[in-house]
TrEMBL record:
Domain TIR: 1-119
Protein name: TIR domain-containing protein
Taxonomic source organism: Streptomyces caatingaensis
Stretches the record annotates as Disordered: 397-417
SUPFAM superfamilies named among the record's database cross-references: P-loop containing nucleoside triphosphate hydrolases (SSF52540), Toll/Interleukin receptor TIR domain (SSF52200)
Superkingdom of this protein's organism: Bacteria
GO annotation, biological process: signal transduction
Amino acid sequence: MSYSRTDADKARVLARILREQGLRVFLDDMAVDDFASITASISEALARSKTLLALYSAEYPRRRACQWELTYAYLAGQREGDPRRRVLVINPERAAHHVHPVELRDAKHWIWPAVPDALQRLAAQVAAHVAAIDSPLGAAGQLTGTQEPRPIPWLPAPARTGSARFTNRLAEQWRIHTALVRHRAPLVAEPGSGSGRTAQLRGMPGIGKSVLAQEYAVRFGSAYPGGVFWFDLHTAQGSPTTAMDAYAQQVAVVCHALDVDDTTDAPLSRLLSRLAVHLGERGTPCLWVVDGLPDGLQWEELQLLRGPHLLASTLLTTRSFRYGSFAEAIDLPPLSDADGFRLVTSHRTPAGDVEKASALALVHDTGGHPQALDILSDLAETTGFVELRNRLHATGTDILASPGSPHSEHRSVKPRHGTPLASALLTRPLSGNRPVDDVLRLLALAAPAPLTQTVLENAIASVDPYDPWEAGSAVSEAVTTLLGSGALLPDPTTPRSWTVHALLARAVRRHDVDTARQEDLRRVLLHTLAAPIAQEPRDGAPHRAEPAPFPPLGLPHSGPSPVERSAAFDLQVELVTRVGVQPLDPEAGSLREALTSLHSLFATTREVLHRVAGESPPPLVLPRIALDLTNQHLRPFLALWHAALRQHEDTCPPDRSAIEHERLWSRAADMRTHLAALREPLTSTAEDLAALCGIDLLHPPRHEMP
């Protein structure tokens, strides 16, 4: 009997009644520690038992021991042709969506009886089912005599054999299997879960996608007697065209091996069609794996990657998070503390509590990243875990930057083609001020805390060389690119919010070529997070903040420094002389010149922030005022009206002046209204600056004549 410790009382009651029916029941009463291996006694008991009776509560799939026991019995039944014969399910919950794989959910399972008589009837039904089975689980699916079981074919050669240091991931293997065979039980499939046959395994570089797919193919091979077809596209990362060429070459190798089509340079569609006929004639299910799918493939190309026949279940592995609609997605998480601890200590047993704590801290430091922990486990052979953790965080040479160790051939996740881990995480050096680099820097600086789209836009708009109306599109394009590379982790609690893995954040901080740019962004981000965040406008109009009472500032007890006072005065001078604080007559002035004038405040604000950050000691008040000015007031206004006015200006005929054309604009009155509404918050900002520098340019003191 397999059960979660939270259901121990139910399990004991049921075991007693089953024994009264004359059954021999193995019930493990010793809790299996999360950091321990499955005990030998449980393995032996499973091999001697005829069936596994799973008390499948909501907690059951969360227990590693339960998953191991279920996998053993399921695969034994799979070798016989029907896993449901060897696994019986009692579901004490009202729903069944927690039951994996889908075949067990589709099978007729019992609910937990509400009265004692029903429990007796359930025990009698279990006894009747077991009586019809002759052999134990250990012998299930084995051939008699000297005949060896037929191996599952694997093409193109060589066959993958999994890894001796693979860290289980049984829950993820069940999710893969459920996704691939969901079509076999359509009546119990959850709405929106997909129709089966195709799944994509997603995750960042080095998280273990390929080795998990290999382990699934090896462990669940009996479910695919037609063989495993494995196509490796890792050499084509970043090049969709090269990827499709590599795929076509490997498909041609398979066709040649099966004597299906020997035509030289045959088109991919022809090869797949010939394979479809061949698989249909064989009539047995097979597994079609495309490993290392690059970002940027078109929909038509993706369709060619599916198994060519409905008997083929297709499993893709990819870093990209942009193929969500193509196949059911399984996002591969970092290793759990238990599995990570087991991996990092695989070459050295911690000596004492301090060493154990340091080993577990390494799991947390690397965010449970398998490849990083594998490198550390090799290094731990010659040094203790306390010293190893100090080396991990020391400045200078990065101990994770080396492509491998002398034991790399035994590593569970080897760097592809000897690529160092840092290079795998950062596919190209960070340099300059491209939006995708700056957004990645900001997320790395904030990690593990997520940043919203609004915070990213406000920070980007506050640094050169971005114009305020460019911030939104620049951030959106950068996020799309980073999602395609697998760098981003969407925050499940907040829409349009992301973070990055701890190891990627570490790589950005340590290997950024432009450290000065990183420091500029760090300062801007801190000021942005400290300032109130602008609310998203609902009607397309720029956000209008409520004016604060004068003076609104809680100044430091020591007062602002002379540099900060001087900078506040300079910014106040620029602000009070601009359109926005100074009214624009209804029929006078140019709207384009008004936008240009307000936009020039961004350059002044950035110069002021750099000046006070470099020359004034904290705490500082001016950055909060400056970022509030640019992000809450100026940027929303400029982003809305720059694009709208530019669209109108593009329609100006050659024989019409720009001013005349502007006055004919249908939205001119609306823009002037919004410009007038901007005066109140800008005036309030000018008053804040006046309070900081001690000189009020808007309300100068009146001197009476003698």
